[in-house]
Amino acid sequence: MITLEFERLGLEKGSRVLDIGCGTGRHSAAAFRQPGVVTVGADVNWKDICETRSRLQLHDQLGEHGGGKWALAAADILALPFKDSSFQLVICSEVLEHIKDHRRALAEAARVLQPGHLLAVSVPSFWPEQLCWKLSKHYARSSNGHVRIYRKKKLMNLLRCAGVTPFASHRAHGLHAPFWWLKCLVGPARNNDHPLVALYHRLLVWDMMQKPKATRMVEKLLNPLMGKSLVVYGRKQV
């Protein structure tokens, strides 16, 4: 499930990409598929790093890559172990909503980004996320859960304060918002055992694997209205 639109990023051969808070590596793998790109996935969770490694190794074995290289790092977004201006693209997808000191996190992301290059940030969209909080106390209070909800204007102002100028945005995963609302309604936010939740999850997996034109068109129409994720692209000031 890729949240970013890589065609917006203009990656050139030899570009270095940092995926902060890479999780299980969905965006690291997508970056690795770009021609000649060097991809670095970073996360504080060792289990997630191991899953990302397995995913990237599978891409290596299958030849599903752009001929570049990859590496992984155990790293905290509040104190990244990289030199200033080390990367031509920094990805920070579904991370900031977990971080109390999000200003420092964005400052670190901007520090390791080369001037004139792009930072891509995604967070849960405001009203779909707000509805989840209202439907389930557990969703908001779960361990390592979300500590805030972002409005688009607030996120853009935070980027500007970090020295990054926003130039584009969009919403993604319109089909996923109802899935999370359903999970909140039937019980704990991570409860996948309920029959309705399991059925909807099968639909989402089928959609991601098969990419049928009908559901792709439906999601394209839903994204501006109820996309689960808000994505903002910004360029570091020179």
Word description of this protein:
The chain is built from nine helices and seven strands; from the N terminus they run E-H-E-H-E-E-H-E-H-H-H-E-H-H-H-E. It has helices at 26-32, 46-62, 102-111, 126-135, 137-141, 152-161, 176-186, 195-210, 213-226; strands at residues 16-20, 38-43, 69-74, 87-93, 113-124, 164-172, 229-236. A seven-stranded mixed β-sheet has the order 3-2-1-4-5-7-6, with helices on both faces. 39% of the residues are buried.
CATH class membership: Alpha Beta
The counted number of beta strands is: 7
Strand order of the largest sheet: 3-2-1-4-5-7-6
Order of helices and strands: EHEHEEHEHHHEHHHE
In short:
With 238 residues, the protein is an alpha/beta fold. 42% of the residues lie in helices and 22% in strands.
Question: What is the topology?
Answer:
Layout: E1 16-20, H1 26-32, E2 38-43, H2 46-62, E3 69-74, E4 87-93, H3 102-111, E5 113-124, H4 126-135, H5 137-141, H6 152-161, E6 164-172, H7 176-186, H8 195-210, H9 213-226, E7 229-236
Parallel strand pairs: 1-2, 1-4, 2-3, 4-5
Antiparallel strand pairs: 5-7, 6-7
